[in-house]
Write a structure and sequence with these properties.
Elements: H1 2-7, E1 9-11, H2 22-33, H3 47-58, H4 62-78, E2 81-93, E3 96-102, H5 116-130, E4 135-141, E5 145-152, H6 155-163, H7 176-186, E6 195-201, H8 212-221, E7 224-231, E8 236-242, E9 248-254, H9 259-268, E10 273-276, H10 279-292, E11 296-307, H11 310-328
Parallel strand pairs: 3-4, 3-6, 6-7, 7-10
Antiparallel strand pairs: 1-2, 2-11, 4-5, 8-9
Length: 335
């Protein structure tokens, strides 16, 4: 309890703590001079007086110890102990970012651990944590697209929604154009100087009502920078599928990523294309994008103090009161 009290305590006038040296000095003086000699007049031979004299002998130094404790508490109190609360204020101009995530069935391929979708979700959550002043939104797509989270600074909502993303939420397919167009629409009214889409997919465009080239032009006209990420190992990857009996079995399927299209989208919007084949590579990509899209941040710290002398003052009074009670009872001097 005492350790917890002093854990976050600062003293406004720490130089007064030098007065604590009086404590060992007074203790030395007390030991050196000894107790004043008292008369040994036998008043009674009753058992009560015998017990009283025994208590006097046993606790003869207690009043002096209580007085020293009281003095120590008073010195600590007048040194103005204070607890502090540190508040960090972050101000700056952030970036508006849409995370556009492919949730098609092929994202369950297990060439990433545990699969592509879960790996993508994990790095997306870490990325959200790293963007202190940015507004971030989430768009998912497969055969169609859907805004999972509009632009927001609420990191807890973002991470919870990303964590809840599952394959099968939308019609299956890979509508890259629809995913990009929906993301661009979410940034259409943004007043931020920097607008970014990070589009992650593992396949080729094969659905949706908006061609990828059209979506790219929309992004260009709105001044949106698009970073594209192709995920998948080279060659073939194991993908869970249902057989005729409804059982889930692993099937090896060829990895087909339209790298030409993804590179074109990135280059013409001022972004960059990345190809990754494992979890570590995916983490590195998001770290690189994080470095490329820096926000202008100003961090200021504010420390607030609260005086905490009252417990020490109360303790000093209690020690003095206890000493006074003892001197009136057990240590009372007979006339």
């Amino acid at each position: 309890m005492i350790a917890d009290y002093f854990h976050s305590i600062d003293f406004a006038w720490p130089w007064l703590l030098w007065l604590l040296l009086l404590i060992p000095a007074l203790a030395w003086w007390y030991w050196k001079t000894g107790r004043r000699k008292k008369g040994t007049m036998l008043v009674s031979t009753t058992g009560w007086n015998h017990r009283t004299r025994s208590l006097k002998v046993r606790f003869q130094h207690l009043p002096f110890i209580l007085r020293l404790l009281s003095l120590a508490c008073i010195i600590l109190a007048i040194a103005r102990p204070q607890s502090h609360f540190d508040e960090e204020r972050v101000k700056g101009e952030g970036v508006d970012i849409i995370l556009t995530l492919d949730v098609s069935g092929s994202m369950l391929a297990q060439d990433f651990s545990p699969n592509r979708l879960e790996a993508a979700k994990a790095v997306a959550i870490d990325f959200v944590d790293s963007r202190k002043t940015d507004r971030v939104g989430v768009v998912i797509f497969s055969g169609e697209s859907f805004t999972m989270v509009p632009l927001t600074t609420d990191k807890n909502v973002l991470k919870a929604q990303i964590d809840g993303i599952q394959s099968g939420l939308l019609e299956d397919g890979t509508a890259i154009g629809s995913g990009l167009a929906t993301s661009a629409d979410r940034l259409r009214l943004s007043t931020s100087k920097s607008k970014v889409v990070i589009l992650l997919t593992d396949g080729e465009n094969n659905g949706g009502q908006i061609p990828p080239v059209t979506a790219k032009e929309i992004a260009k006209n709105l001044g949106i920078k698009v970073y594209t990420i192709g995920v998948g190992s080279e060659g073939y990857a194991p993908i869970p599928v249902q057989d005729g009996a409804g059982r889930v079995v692993m099937q090896r399927e060829k990895v087909n990523i339209d790298e030409k299209l993804l590179t074109q989208i990135a280059n013409e919007t001022g972004g960059k294309y990345f190809r990754v084949s494992d979890n570590e590579g995916l983490k590195d990509v998001y770290k690189e994008i994080d470095e490329l899209e820096k926000s202008t941040i100003e961090v200021s710290s504010l420390r607030q103090y609260t005086d905490r002398f009252l417990p020490l003052a109360i303790a000093a009074l209690l020690f003095l009161a206890l000493e006074w009670i003892l001197r009136l009872t057990i240590f009372r001097k007979l006339p």
